[in-house]
Amino acid sequence: MKALCTVLATALLLMSSSGLAARAPQNVNPQAAALVDFQNRLQKYLQLRAQLADKLKPLSSTASAADLAARQQSLAAALRDVRKDARHGDLVSPVVAEQIRKGVDAYFRGKDASTRRAVFLEVPENLQPVINRTVPDSVALATVPPLLLNSLPRLPEGLQYRFVGRHIVLVDADTRLIMDYAQNALPPH
């Protein structure tokens, strides 16, 4: 089923970029269409980020850690400013959030209690996902297990899924900004 959705999503993406979308059949799988829409939203975000990064002062080839951190903060501030009206669901639509929840449920359904505990050891419980909030460097962001990543919609380079409380957040890896999230996607832990 996932392979079929991927094929349909790719076909829809190709049709929309070539102008054939107007002639697409009306009975398109809504989940596949939502995935295509999700990928388009992510690409638009990455294009925006690239445009804003191009406006920043270039780093020297021997940039210090302080220079890198300052650039990261400048880019995050520029993104926050441009996306000041961003809201939960702007990138992760309800249909995509439900697909994420189903993938998470299927992954954890086959895990024993000790494996579940191990996955959630580093999950920050006291951090609430807020769009455009920078995840503090002092907060460890729990990585999503690779087998679970395989059942989630693919993300382009530079974007990551992370666990925060019971939510799966979409984080910009360069700026550590929370871009959006799938609410209550993780089982109680």
Total domain count = 2
CATH architecture assignment name of the largest domain: Roll
- Determine the fraction of residues in helical runs and give it as a percent range: 40-55%
> How large is the count of helical segments?
6
Shape: globular
Main beta-sheet strand count, sense and barrel state: 4 strands, antiparallel
Proportion of residues in β-strands: 5-15%
Order of helices and strands: HHHHHEHEEE
Which descriptors apply to this entry?
single chain; 189 residues; alpha+beta; Nuclear Transport Factor 2, Chain: A; 2 domains; 4-stranded antiparallel beta sheet; 6 helices; disordered N terminus
Give a quick precis of the structure.
The chain is of the alpha+beta class and 189 residues long. Helices cover 47% and strands 10% of the residues. It folds into two domains: 2-21 and 29-82, no CATH class; 94-182, Nuclear Transport Factor 2, Chain: A, CATH 3.10.450.
Outline the fold blueprint:
Layout: H1 2-18, H2 30-55, H3 65-82, H4 94-109, H5 113-119, E1 142-143, H6 146-149, E2 159-164, E3 167-172, E4 178-182
Antiparallel strand pairs: 1-2, 2-3, 3-4
Helix pairs in contact: 1-2
